[in-house]
Specification:
- The protein is mostly helical and about 400 residues long.
- It has 14 helices and two strands.
Length: about 400
């Protein structure tokens, strides 16, 4: 099957794009208002959603020429949402909570019905994009029967299908979140206690559905395909974010020595493998290095120290010489043992720190948003004053 000639599915993609535009017209004014009224939480989030939707629509509407670099996965740079911060003065903190509660109630009363009205439309659109996405994911393609230009066109269309479906799923989750959040505000609560949806959550869900949660092994298998590949495998190798998520599961390299040239081309076109190598370079170098050299140096120093002690007391009485040698040996071995333990501890700690940095960077590359940490609890003014006085 050559999906690049399927006019019916291209028409379906156009219709789904129009649905997203309609949803955008309804949602973006709400997000813009939230960004204006509650900038501490929603300012970066609103601009991120606009970037996500606009880039997806641009990607789907623009006809890609054969040979163009496929890099849709980079469409969303996850932004760090500005944290509200901690108010030092309890009185001001409580005033701010009361002020925001009034604003939130007004926003909820004006928009809750609108969001509830959008949900059925989004659910229908999500169902349609899901069926189209499933169709292309399960289609098998023979590597022998596809030349490089054709497999590029196949990958380009698959990425369009993914872009539309992923954005539909995201907007559906966003609408469900806003319904819960507006409902909480209307009931006099500061929050529904759920996280703002982000692209990382959607990518994780898509990956779990396509490959039952084991993305790294799926990526490795797809990268080493020799006969045929399924649509979902082409997507995993071609989509920047899904590739980064798969590679980041184990923080280790995939063996591509035996990769089919057409598969290797898809991996190179995506660019995720190169980005992943750059992100994990320091961690990889740390793992490939070893504390052995430091430990060997300690052992050498211990040997020369013992030798020096032995030679220094060579002409002394046997008992004195041996007492000094044994005493010196025990002290040096103790120092070396402590040094050895310290070297291993520092090595392990550095490895953990570098691994955490890699995980964090990869998660951001896959659309993860750092959530704002907001203290919604009212402060006891007297208690705060006493603590300030005593401190």
């Amino acid at each position: 099957m050559d999906p690049t000639n399927d006019n019916l599915d291209n028409k379906a993609l156009d219709e789904l794009s129009l649905n997203i535009k309609e949803i955008e017209k309804e949602l973006m004014p709400q997000l813009d208002m939230l960004a204006e009224k509650i900038p501490e939480i929603y300012n970066g989030y609103a601009s991120m959603v606009r970037t996500l939707v606009d880039t997806t629509l641009d990607f789907v509407s623009v006809s890609k020429k054969t040979g163009d670099r496929i890099a849709l996965g980079a469409e969303v740079t996850a932004r760090v949402i500005t944290a509200w911060g901690n108010y030092k003065a309890a009185v001001e903190h409580n005033k701010m909570l009361a002020k925001y509660m009034q604003i939130k109630k007004t926003i909820a009363n004006n928009n809750l019905t609108k969001v509830e009205g959008l949900l059925p439309k989004l659910e229908r659109s999500n169902t349609s994009s899901s069926k189209l996405f499933e169709k292309y994911c399960t289609t098998a393609y023979s590597l022998e029967n596809l030349d490089e230009e054709t497999i590029k066109r196949v990958a380009a269309l698959l990425l369009k299908v993914l872009a539309i479906h992923r954005t539909n799923v995201y907007l559906f989750e966003l609408c469900k979140y806003l319904k819960k959040e507006y409902g909480a505000w209307a009931s006099g609560m500061q929050t529904c206690n759920e996280s703002l949806p982000d692209y990382y959550q959607i990518n994780k869900k898509l990956g779990d559905n396509m490959f039952k949660g084991n993305l790294f092994d799926a990526y490795s298998a797809a990268a080493n395909s020799t006969d045929a590949v399924e649509g979902k495998q082409i997507l995993l190798l071609s989509d920047y974010q899904l590739s980064m998520m798969a590679l980041g599961e184990k923080l280790c390299k995939v063996n591509l020595k035996n990769a089919n040239p057409k598969v290797a081309m898809l991996i190179a076109e995506c660019g995720a493998s190169e980005s992943y190598a750059n992100e994990t370079k320091r961690f990889t170098e740390h793992i490939e290095s070893s504390p052995v050299s430091t430990i060997a140096l300690l052992a050498a120093l211990a040997f020369f120290a013992i030798l020096w002690i032995a030679l220094s007391y060579l002409h002394s009485h046997d008992t004195v010489r041996w007492i000094m040698i044994i005493g010196g040996l025990s002290v040096i071995l103790r120092i070396c043992f402590r040094g050895y333990k310290r070297v291993l501890i520092v090595y392990a700690q550095n490895g953990i720190k570098l691994a955490e940095e890699c995980d964090s960077n990869i998660e951001r590359a896959c659309g993860k948003i750092e959530q704002a940490e907001v203290d919604y609890s009212e402060k006891d003014v007297l208690d705060s004053a006493l603590k300030g006085f005593l401190n």
